Automatic annotation (TrEMBL):
InterPro entries, per database record: DjlA_N (IPR007791), TerB-like (IPR029024)
Superkingdom of this protein's organism: Bacteria
Co-chaperone DjlA N-terminal domain: residues covered: 100-224
Protein name (record): TerB family tellurite resistance protein
Length: 232
């Protein structure tokens, strides 16, 4: 018969001390992740556990497996394995850098003339994203090399191959960007396109593909592209 609970709950507390449960964790992997508790990159252990009933603190009966979980080496807190889906700060920076570079090359490839002003605007964006040594001459050479490699002609509409390249660079990044961040990448591409004059049809098509890959609604893409044409 269970002890009766008194007003102060001492009986229930005593019972809990007699019978409880314990989890024995076993490491099954490790690595680095972005810890949501610490707010930065930390080492982690991936753990699986076996739960047991305890009697007077001693394990007696198995209750089955639990986990897996991710344990932060710094704060010691446990998180679901979906925490590993969030890129580390280092990985995120690389993804953002590569995305801006890919968008810049795509817009320049759509630009029929690849004008000096467009190249310089693109170089400024790429340098700010994490390629500090990028120059307009390097970008021009890359655009020419891409055209030679793919058979693409400057100023042609967004080809399936180019659309795939944009989606490969932007799809993994989009879920981890706030709306303002996704818009900023699109607007960078718009500024490159506008540096030498109004949008060409090919540039608009490339920018529409960029917007779709960043999960920006088509009407919002239209609004943002129109806003980019208006001097602030």
């Amino acid at each position: 018969m269970l002890p009766e609970r008194g007003q102060d709950g001492r009986a229930a507390t005593g019972f809990a001390r007699v019978l409880g449960h314990r989890t024995a964790w076993t490491p099954v992997g490790d690595g680095e992740f972005f810890c949501p508790g610490c707010g930065g990159d930390r080492n982690y252990q991936r753990l699986t556990g076996r739960r047991r009933f305890t009697l007077l603190g001693l394990p007696v009966l198995p209750r089955g497996e639990t986990g897996p979980v991710v344990e932060c080496a710094s704060c010691q807190r446990h998180y679901g394995t979906d925490a590993l889906d969030h890129p580390t700060t280092t990985r995120f920076s690389a993804m953002l850098r590569d995305a801006v570079h890919t968008v810049a090359l795509a817009v320049l490839s759509a630009n029929g003339s690849c004008a000096r002003t467009s190249l310089e605007t693109a170089a400024v964006a790429v340098r700010a994203a994490g390629f500090p040594d990028c120059t307009r001459e390097q970008l021009a050479a890359l655009v020419d090399a891409l055209a030679a490699d793919t058979g693409r002609v400057h100023g042609e509409p967004c080809t399936p191959g180019l659309a795939i390249e944009l989606h490969e660079a932007l799809d993994p990044l989009a879920p981890h960007l706030a709306p303002v961040g996704r818009e900023a990448i699109l607007l960078q591409g718009a500024r490159i396109a506008l540096a030498d004059g109004p949008y060409t049809p090919a540039e608009r098509e490339v920018l529409a593909t960029v917007g779709a890959a960043l999960t920006i609604r088509a009407d919002e893409v239209t609004r943002l592209l129109a806003a980019a044409r208006t001097p602030s």
